[in-house]
Amino acid sequence: MRRPAAAKPAKKRPAKVKAKPAEPAMDVAVGRRIRDLRRVRQFSLETVAACTELSIGFLSQIERGLSSPSLRVLATLADVLGVGIAALFGASPSADGASDQVVTRRLQRPELKLWRTGVSKQLLSPASSDNKLNLFLVHLEPGGSTGDELYTHDGEEAGLVLEGEMMLTVDSQTWSLKTGDSFRFASRRPHRFSNPAQDAKAVVLWVNCVTGAG
To answer: By C-alpha distance, which of 100, 119, 103 is closest to 111?
Structure first.
């Protein structure tokens, strides 16, 4: 009498590598806002491409939410569109449409999450494309940065490190700023910033004053 064949052990499936989640909704919102501002100003993609030295194809991808732009690219686009970077958050002003809003509640903060670079900015001041002074809470994930390339834009900026450490480069000089350290510089000076820590977030209270927009 034949014995029943022993069941073969089940093969273990290889563990799936978790991919970094995409943030399509944020990219779409920012892209739509850039497209709307460009159309209001009656700028063609060709015009914006010529002013920013970015390709027409790349600009089109940004506007359609297919590419996540860096902070450097957003700052360059804001300059060409004549607004502060806060105007690119894809958020509308107050519900009643007023531009003289005074208070922003904690749960009402628009957020610009540059998820590919580990940088996110929460807008603490009321959202309006007419604002020249804007207050942000900047979060830098471990290793997050604006990139290796220095960039410039209109205005002035200042800030206070609330948590962690930030490396700030302005022109050819670099500083390590830790909790309690502060800074100020003209935004036309080439600059970049990053979080050098690999296991801790950095949080910075950041002020941008736009002098030429409007």
So the answer is: 119
